[in-house]
UniProtKB/TrEMBL annotation:
<keyword id="KW-1278">Translocase</keyword>
<keyword id="KW-0521">NADP</keyword>
<feature type="domain" description="NADP transhydrogenase beta-like">
    <location>
        <begin position="5"/>
        <end position="134"/>
    </location>
</feature>
<dbReference type="InterPro" id="IPR034300">
    <property type="entry name" value="PNTB-like"/>
</dbReference>
<keyword id="KW-0812">Transmembrane</keyword>
<keyword id="KW-1133">Transmembrane helix</keyword>
<protein>
    <recommendedName>
        <fullName>proton-translocating NAD(P)(+) transhydrogenase</fullName>
        <ecNumber>7.1.1.1</ecNumber>
    </recommendedName>
</protein>
<keyword id="KW-0472">Membrane</keyword>
<dbReference type="InterPro" id="IPR029035">
    <property type="entry name" value="DHS-like_NAD/FAD-binding_dom"/>
</dbReference>
<keyword id="KW-0520">NAD</keyword>
<dbReference type="Pfam" id="PF02233">
    <property type="entry name" value="PNTB"/>
</dbReference>
């Protein structure tokens, strides 16, 4: 379903990229395998150090299921994830997070991204959320 949403967006002139944190998923490379299974063009996949400088120019960052790897708290000392590299999605003009709950990640701390005023939380599972988002975008660009 991700690919269908991307096709809809790119058909309307939207530049879309994918970013996967190096430790995302159940094992190294897990998310890359899932993207390949979904037929996501490898040319749209960017490494973290390549995509992070692009977030301040991004209109929207769509986050699906991530927690600690998107938490801005990592940039400050004194917490469980201090110094951990994160995807700088909070620097986009707006952020949409698809997640089942406000639950904590592995580190057990709140994700400050979720309470950022530029972040909208969409509480659902990934497949349903992406399906509904695709339908909503389709109606908008109609």
């Amino acid at each position: 379903m991700r690919r269908v949403l991307v096709e809809l967006l790119t058909d309307h002139g939207v530049d879309v990229s994918y970013a996967v944190h190096p430790v995302a998923g159940r094992m190294p490379g897990h998310m890359n395998v899932l993207l390949a299974e979904a037929n996501v063009p490898y040319t749209q996949l960017k490494e973290m150090d390549e995509v992070n400088p692009e977030f301040p120019q991004a209109d929207v960052a769509l986050v699906v299921g991530a927690n600690d790897v998107t938490n801005p708290a990592a940039r400050r000392p004194g917490n469980a994830i201090s110094g951990m590299p994160v995807l700088d999605v909070d620097k986009a003009k707006s952020v949409v997070v698809i997640k089942r709950s406000m639950g904590h990640g592995y580190a057990g701390i709140d994700n400050e991204l979720y309470t950022n005023p530029r972040t909208g939380m969409f509480f659902t599972d990934a497949k349903r959320g992406l399906t509904e988002l695709k339908a909503a975008v389709g109606e908008f660009v109609g």
